[in-house]
Amino acid sequence: MSKRMSLSYSFPVFLIFVATATIACLDGLGVGKGLRFSGGSPFRIALFADLHYGENAWDDWGPKQDVKSDRVLSNVLDNETPDFVIYLGDVITANNLPIPNASMYWVQAISPTRIRGIPWATLFGNHDDAQFKWPLEWFSIAGIPEVRCPPESSFAGEKDCSFRGTTRIELMKMELLKNPLSHSQIGPTELWPAVSNYILQISSSKDPESPSVFLYFLDSGGGSYPEVISYAQIKWFQEQSQAINPNLQVPELIFWHIPSHAYKKVAPCRKSSIKSPCVGSINMEEVDSQEAEWGIMDALLNRSSVKAVFVGHNHGLDWCCPYEKLWLCFARHSGYGGYGTWPRGSRIIEMTEDPFSLNSWISMEDGTKHSYVKLSS
Amino acid sequence: MSKRMSLSYSFPVFLIFVATATIACLDGLGVGKGLRFSGGSPFRIALFADLHYGENAWDDWGPKQDVKSDRVLSNVLDNETPDFVIYLGDVITANNLPIPNASMYWVQAISPTRIRGIPWATLFGNHDDAQFKWPLEWFSIAGIPEVRCPPESSFAGEKDCSFRGTTRIELMKMELLKNPLSHSQIGPTELWPAVSNYILQISSSKDPESPSVFLYFLDSGGGSYPEVISYAQIKWFQEQSQAINPNLQVPELIFWHIPSHAYKKVAPCRKSSIKSPCVGSINMEEVDSQEAEWGIMDALLNRSSVKAVFVGHNHGLDWCCPYEKLWLCFARHSGYGGYGTWPRGSRIIEMTEDPFSLNSWISMEDGTKHSYVKLSS
């Protein structure tokens, strides 16, 4: 079917009403302002990508992987002592979760950060609100094991137990409910069904009102809807960035989950080593980019203040490559859930305030560090 | 991931509790007994396959197709005056329905039969409870049109409007609620998540307790779970058929939606004409069979009483071919929703009681009939 889209509707269409919840203090434009440089020290961020908690949740293998993921997070946090953590999507593997509320796995993923008192933000990947996918084997002679619907299964108005997934909004609401350290936001309703669209300011050490860096979070879709950054999100980005940083004086970093098509353009040849100007250590698969693109890369290139984009999604890639005036970087597969057996780690971002500099490296579970790259100076 | 399945669970798994609802009178084994031969007359069934009501529900094209489907149903019902109608799955295109309750389209599909006072039964296809699939175009500059969540959108305990699909059980409950002419059943809970598993008896004209034919309905999955007939369903079929027809004296017909692998074995060569012993008029695509098979065909072949299997799913196929001692038949694409532009029609099944005979043909929207085939005598 590729019929003309019409805006005239012959029946009512419905909207999830979204409470725009925020924990960190916001300015009038909705920019979160809880983060700040402290005089003289660099500001360090750890990216945790593709943790995939809850993978194969029904057998022994899955929970064991999650314990290993806990260890990755703990080691990186203890080795790098970051000022801030970004969960870069695919925090959970919802399509493996035959439960009405997947938040227990979300909680597990943020716990190592929370218990260390480190603030964090999350954004959504394509697995976070995916519908449960019944394993084909459950229909064989092995069968579906004896199952039951306990009283506590009622959740968010769902009276019966169903496997239709926990929505992005439900997940985010649960995260925000009891976590003052979370800087995540349920983004503007006009960007629905994309949810994790928001901006955080890292304030100057000299003046908490003065921005030194802006961090933009975008929901690149997937799961319950297509893998795409919508035209509405692009417009929102353009309007917001113009309003808060009209003179392009404040450096801007961008975070989402699924690589854009531009990543394909700059990618090192498949399975070859990663050569300069790219920097990284694994190049084991093709870039799996978004389903469509409606202009986000042009919007970024139009702003000289945008220094780099950071994505996850491809577990077998961890490089940064230049793309015109900015850098396109993969994070590093951090979780034991999800495909791939490459050693786990975390991309670290470190910024200085004055003069601004942006450097990055990968910090492994075993404490080793590699792939240092200067992204802006 | 192809890890060993384990039956030891480390967290609670949940079950939708299902009320086994029935409208037509049942015997102790749950066999529906409302249908009966009338002395001397054949018993005629019309199969409506792949109606796909609600396709592109958001634009003008979709509702117009549904009106055309109404016309197909009305014409066939008026031309053939069947004693019974079977809706052979993909009654609706749930993945095109951004509404919390898809039952309004289900109601539309059964209306032409209901208003003529003809009894019917339904079974599920792979589109009936599919999750809404967001059109990629909605994320382009055209955008998602202004949408709203009206108060009446609350349904089955869902307080917010969501696009996560209407479940098989919800659809079936809604059908049964106000339709005494429906012979559908919500099948045994132990076959969950398959729902449309049940047996109807066509009773003898001489004795309403005595069976002349058994009709078996099986849910071949798809949508919210894999396209498969489970081992549990096979076991249920074996036990039920053995209990109600131990001596194989009563002829048995089988209905489900997605063709089994055996259909591939007997299929005429792609795009060639349909040659004897097969009978049919369109052979325009490959058989799109179930994802796995755990033995249903062996179970059917073990019973000499099983005369034929009827499926839908492939809109470009309408043939019957022999497979060992039974016949494998496609119905005919009946709806204007769904892919394909081949003229719409309905497979008709006609049985005589004594002696038993089973014939079939295809009855088109325009009143023409073709592809007569004797399936048993």
From TrEMBL, chains A, B:
UniProt xrefs under Pfam families: Metallophos
Listed InterPro entries: Calcineurin-like_PHP, Metallo-depent_PP-like, PAP14/16/28/29
GO cellular component term, pick one: cytoplasm
CDD domains: MPP_Dcr2
Domain Calcineurin-like phosphoesterase: 43-315
GO molecular function ontology, one term from the record: hydrolase activity, acting on ester bonds
Protein name: Calcineurin-like phosphoesterase domain-containing protein
Organism (species): Dendrobium nobile
